[in-house]
TrEMBL record:
Alphabetized GO MF terms: ATP binding; metal ion binding
Stated name of the protein: ATP-grasp domain-containing protein
UniProt KW Ion transport keyword: no
Organism field: Lentzea jiangxiensis
Ranges where the ATP-grasp domain occurs: 109-303
Region forming the signal peptide: none
Keyword ATP-binding: yes
Superkingdom of the source species: Bacteria
Keywords tagged on the record: ATP-binding, Nucleotide-binding
Length: 421
């Protein structure tokens, strides 16, 4: 079982129809919107990969907004804002100043202090790591949004020298490495408080999926009793405290909070993701199963409605998981598996009829494409998101893929043809 809060589905849908009768989800993949669409059947989709649309220019006389748009990470450049305005849509995005303060790995420390939540012992350094910072350390660049490639584990003097040389001239966050389970709690700041939704085990740095120690590799939803006694409740409390502090800064909408849960049930705040996170796709399935409005809808109402009827419910845990499959070399993507539901037989992917996350059965998966034929890709760049009906990895600080998840990853990789060196 687990405890989550949200807007009751029937009341939420009624409010959405009133405030957002024309709503578009825009992203390079429909995966997150698709998990909400069964509850929001009028939701439209626009495939826009803003990270590849660097030459967009806002028209001198854009059309008057006739609808609303929501995007995965609108702060990642100006593409989401420009496309929405060009399409005659008002983009529902959080206040840029609040987003910048929360996303920055250094200024977010002030947010944690103001919220009264604990963090690992941390130093902010320019050029040198203090003598007091001994033992394994985690070094982060202040701008590390979306990828996790700006996070390094330092265990030797040589690694310390290498990271200082590579990131010379930058102000860095250095934290003591703490052994514990990486947990993400998904929330949404509204005008009447913070909605705290599902918990997930964040999968980071799995060698079969990435060569980067701090890179995000996926998530799996977890029940309250998967954590030490009292830890799940404290995770939710920390999320509410941080969310309320974000609200004081003018932030409204979906966010994620990355935490570290130690074996003795201590909960330490690591970083804030002031945007939708990939795991929200799974979270929305959990919300729908609990009779709650999906986060996409709550995010929309947070910007449009002065008050929301929020409820806390106990619900059955769904063992859903997902993995991010990245490119392992430079090249141009020529062929890949098509998006959709699959079953795996004898190491081969077999396409099935259309399916929903809540309808997935053991041995089945949903595949979403984040890169498309003709795209030039680099090592570590996302190619696919693979969603499974059960756990994808062991529930431990250094997770290992399950045998079944490993077979799925290998089968998906075999579908990829990359040209070039």
């Amino acid at each position: 079982m687990l405890t989550i809060s949200g807007v009751p589905l029937d009341e939420g849908v009624k409010l959405l129809r009133q405030h957002a009768p024309h709503l578009t989800w825009q992203d390079r993949s429909p995966f997150l919107g698709a998990a909400a669409a069964p509850a929001i059947p009028w939701l439209r989709f626009a495939r826009r990969d803003h990270r590849r649309e660097s030459r967009l220019v806002l028209p001198a006389d854009p059309p008057v907004a006739q609808g609303l748009a929501v995007s995965f990470a609108p702060e990642d450049g100006t593409g989401a804002h420009i496309w929405a305005a060009t399409a005659g849509l008002r983009l529902l995005a959080a206040d840029p100043a609040a987003v910048a303060a929360a996303a920055d790995k250094i200024t977010s420390l002030e947010l944690f202090t103001a919220a009264g939540v604990d963090t690992p012992r941390t130093w902010v350094v320019d050029g040198e790591i203090p003598d007091a910072a001994t033992g394994p350390l985690v070094v982060q660049r202040r701008a590390n949004n979306l990828t996790g490639k700006g996070t390094r584990l330092v265990t030797t003097p040589r690694q310390r020298d290498e990271v200082l040389r590579e990131w010379t001239g930058e102000t860095l966050r250095v934290s003591a490495h703490v052994n514990g389970l990486t947990v993400t709690v998904s929330g949404c700041v509204t005008r009447c408080g913070t909605v705290v939704s599902a918990l997930s085990h964040q999968l980071v740095g799995i060698p079969a999926l990435t060569s980067y120690w701090g890179a995000h590799c996926g998530n799996q939803l977890i029940a309250d009793n998967a954590l030490p006694p009292g830890a799940a409740a404290r995770c939710r409390e920390v999320c509410a405290l941080v969310g309320d502090r974000l609200g004081e800064l003018g932030f409204l909408g979906a966010f994620g909070l990355d935490l570290l849960v130690t074996p003795d049930a201590a909960v330490l705040a690591i970083e804030i993701n002031p945007r939708f996170q990939t795991v929200v796709s799974l979270v929305q399935a959990q919300e729908r199963a609990a009779g709650l409005l999906p986060t996409l809808g709550t995010h929309t109402l947070a910007a449009l409605s002065p008050s929301l009827p929020v409820r806390e419910v106990s619900t059955t845990h769904l063992p859903l998981s997902q993995l991010v499959i990245t490119a392992d070399r430079h090249g141009v993507l020529r062929e890949r598996a098509e998006p959709g539901p699959y079953r795996l037989e004898a190491g081969l992917l077999h396409h099935q009829a259309e399916s929903d996350l809540l309808a997935l059965r053991p041995g089945e998966a949903l595949l979403w494409c984040h890169a498309h034929p003709g795209d030039a890709v680099r090592p570590g760049e996302e190619l696919f998101l693979l969603q499974l009906a059960g756990p994808a990895a062991s529930l431990q600080p250094e997770p290992e893929l399950t045998a079944e998840a490993g077979e799925w990853v290998r089968a998906v990789r075999r579908s990829v043809v990359l040209d070039g060196a």
